[in-house]
Amino acid sequence: MESSKDYVSITEAAKHSGLHPNSLRRLLRQGEISGHKSSVDGKSRWRVSVSSLRRYTDPVDGLLLDRPGPKKFLAQHGSG
Questions:
Q1: Type and span of the H or E element at 40
Q2: Where are the alpha helices (DSSP H) in 1-80?
Q3: Which pTM value belongs to this model?
Q4: pLDDT tens digits for range 31-73
Q5: Positive or negative: CA dihedral 47, 13, 5, 52
Q6: Residue 66 has what DSSP assignment?
Q7: What is the DSSP letter of 35?
């Protein structure tokens, strides 16, 4: 199992991936990316698996390539 440092908040995942936080929540609920909910200040918050997000947004063979919409991560990685 991945350690807690392998998980980031929705905000941080959105910043690094270029995906909207609501899109990340949808992907988590659908099981497209891995994560878990944890309690922060008495509120349930999603934590996103960094490795799962990397696989999803991989510019060569990631699942995001099959989806419509802008691909900000490609510009960040020097592709496209």
A1: strand 35-40
A2: 10-17, 21-30, 50-57, 72-76
A3: 0.72
A4: 999 999 999 889 999 999 999 998 888 777 666 655 555 555 5
A5: positive
A6: G
A7: E
